[in-house]
Each structure stands twice: as structure tokens, then as C-alpha cells.
Amino acid sequence: MSEHLLSLVIFLPLLGAALLLFIRDERAIRWIALAVAVADFAVSIPLLTGFDSSTHKMQFVERYEWIPSFNIFYYLGVDGISVLFIFLTAFLGVICVLASWTGIKHRVKEFMISLLAMQTAMLGVFAALDLLLFYLFWEAMLIPMYLIIGVWGGKNRIYSAVKFFLYTLAGSILMLVGIIAMYYAAGGTFDIPTLMEHKYSFVFQIWVFLAFFVAFAVKVPMVPFHTWLPDAHVEAPTAGSIILAGVLLKLGTYGFLRFSVPMFPDAARYLATPIIIISLVAIIYGAFLALAQKDLKKLIAYSSISHMGFVTLGIFLFNKNGVEGAILQMFNHGITTSALFFCVGLIYERTHTREISAYGWGASRVPYYTTFLFIFSLASLGFPGTNGFIGELLIAFGAFEAYQPYLIFLLIGIVFGAAYMLFMFKRMAYGADSHGHGGQGGHGGGHGHDDHEHKVWDIDLREAIALFALLVFVFWVGFHPEDFLNYMHVSVSRFIEQANVIKISASGL
């Protein structure tokens, strides 16, 4: 079983999706989808427990000939970076099914099939060690995500789905051009470890780095490629927002870690300063945009732009604290922001509005929900003892080592992050509405939601289980970050070594 563990983790959701094709009963479809997601998460655990953190080499490797005429292999493996994200993706798959239990009321079979197919594609991206196989998994994510937004989204779902599709496809086409160029430059191979060792001319590195950069920057998303994200988040169903925030945004930064820097280190160092400047702009700009939002879901969407700015900054600092902080923050963001979007989905199901001004009664009407929202808000702003704190702290250490003035911008971003999260929570839990009522009121600030007050109920057992599972990681990472950092220490050291090695071919000198 261990020889094919990665294949099992990747394709178990797809097998579950195929099984659902033959099921008609909606209740059975939900339970089977949940069973498949739980089984996939359970199968992913041995990847962590059996992982040897003392080496940077790929583990759980599977390699078989696929298309010999083009030297293409079915080639899988994980290191100390990717293993954490396979675990995170499998875990969030369970959360997505639970989040969709009552929120998806039509075409339940098609939705669960799309969700499970999406799971397979995302897991494949983190495990692929053949560049063409990676690209196939990368592109395979487009269709199910397009359907999740376009079929089960809000009133502007078609516009948002098409915008997401076009942005992502445009970046992917440029990446495909870069992949083909690398195939011929390296003598006809798509083998990722081999491509990492190959020396390219400096001009080649610059052009292919930029081709990959656009594809990954769209996924992150980095400024100015970010405009698709708020639309997609607002229109997507709750599970779609969890996938977007929890996993899809990480694929862009994972691309920088796996491809852009190790394969093109000279170009990465040459372009690091403008990328860091863009990251600092994103940290502050995203926070400003979040602070101005009246829509709860949009506020959290814009906060992702700011948080992912921390991640891209940490990666391109090229030091141990910065890179490890970035990877840990990728994991943390997947947990915390997924939890916040889940909280948005829960309150939306009860009130059918996302306008923050429609609330103000949270603490009195839904105290358990408000408690979870408070803790996840603290984690998002990086409160000590939560997962967000240690990630931001490591990135701050890395920024101090690299160039001390970066800390000024980081601190501004952290302050604004605290401002928009605490202001949001205050209005949700205790804020007065436009009629001057205090936290006891259920008035909608002129939006006509008074009649929803008597319909609001606190979280049920299903919702509590999902939120508590997310909460475990908030405090686990917050109090025992070494449990997660230990996986990446050696792989990050190898990454930094690759980033600092001159890899210019003789023809490029």
C-alpha cells in the first residue's frame, strides 16, 4: 500500500465521484461524498506519520512510463514542503462537504462530483514531479471550479466564473509556452528534479521565469492580477470559497517554491526586489480594501490579498525564517480563512444577507457562533497563541535579516489587519444598527432584515464539528509550531541553497 499511497490519496476522490454517478438519493449522495472525503483524509495521515524529515529528497515516489516517445512519466513524490499541503487539501475536502450539507439544495449529485474531482486535481498538483503531469492537473482544476461558481454561485455567478476562467487560462497558456521551451532546452525531459539541476542562459531564465510568474501570480493572486478574486469569492458557494481560499491561492505560491526559484534562481534573485515591492503593496492595499468593505464575504476576500502578500514576501527574502514563515503562513491561511468563509456561509444561510450592517446581534442571539468567529478573527490578525502569529513573526524576522525598512510596511499591514478584523467583529457581535439599537437588535440597518431575527439559530452539531476541527489547528500551530516546521526545515535549507547557486549555462555568459 505504501508504494502507491500518493496515487490512492490523489485518485480516491475521483473514484468517489465516479461512484456518485450511479446514486440518485440526495441524502445518500451527501453521506457517500462525506465518507469518501473522510477516507481520503485518513489515507493522507500516513504521509505525515511516515515522512522522514531528515532529508530533502522526494518520498513516497511513484514513477512509471506514460508516453515514452516524449519522455513523459507518471511521476509522483512529496518533500517537506508539499506533504503539508496534501494533508491540508485532504482535510479541507471534509470541511467542504460539511459546509455544503444544507447550503446546496439543487443538483446535489453534480455538485459533489465537481467537488471531489476538484480535490483530485488539487492533490495532483502538489504531488506531480513530471512537469507535463503537473500541467494536466493544473488545468484540470479549471472546469470543476468554473462549474462550482457558475452553477451554484450567486446572482452574478456567470460573470465571476468566466472572469476566473479567463484569468487563470491566460496565465496557464503562458506557463505552457515556458514548459515547452524548458523541454527542448533541457534535452527533451519533463522530469522536475532534472530540470532543477539544468543550467539555462540568463536571458532564457528571465523569459521563462516571467511566463511562470504570470500563471502563479494570477493564482495567488498578486496585485495587479487580483481583480478576479473578490468576484469569485462573493459569488461562489461556501465550499467554493473554502477551496479558493484554502487551496487554490496556495498553488500560486507553491509554484514559486517548486519551480520559479529552484529552476531559475538567477532570474529570481534579479527580479526579487520588484516582487517584494509588489508584495508590500498587496499587504497594505489589500488591508485598505478590506477595511472599506460593507459585504462580509468581500472583506475576507480582500484580506486574502493582504495575507498572501506576506507569503510572497517571505518566499523572495531567500532566508530561512522568511521562507519557513511563508510556508507556515500558507498552511495557516488555508485553515483560518477557510474557517472565516465557513462562518460567513453559516450566517448567510440563516439571514440571506452578507451586509455587515444587517447584524449587530451576534453575541446575544448566536453566542456559540460568535465565539468561533471571534477566535478565527484573532487568528486572522495574528494574535499571540494562534496560528497566524508565528507565521507573521517568522516573516518579520526574515524581513529584518534581509532589509530592515521592510518591517515598517509589515507593521502597517499588521495594524490595518487588526483594524478591519476587529471592526468587523465589533459590528457583527455588538454593533448598533442604523436605527440606533444596540446588540440586542435584529434590524438590518435599513435593509429590511428585522423579520430574520426570530429565524436565526445557533450552530448545530455538524457545524460545530467542522468549526472545532479547524479550531484545533489554530491552537496546535499557535502553541506547537515546531510540529509543522520540523517537516520543512531540511527542504527549506535545500530551497535556499538552490536559490543561491549560480545556474547560468556557458552559452549565457
Description:
By secondary structure, the chain is mainly alpha-helical. It has one domain (2-508). It is 71% helix and 3% strand. It is built from 20 helices and two strands. It has helices spanning 5-20, 26-49, 82-99, 108-127, 131-140, 142-152, 157-185, 192-197, 202-219, 228-235, 238-263, 265-291, 296-315, 320-351, 362-365, 367-381, 387-402, 406-429, 461-479, 482-500; strands spanning 59-67, 72-78. Strands 1-2 form a two-stranded antiparallel ribbon. A hairpin with a 4-residue loop joins strand 1 and strand 2. Helix 5 (131-140) packs antiparallel against helix 7 (157-185). The termini are far apart. The model is unreliable at 433-454 (pLDDT under 50).
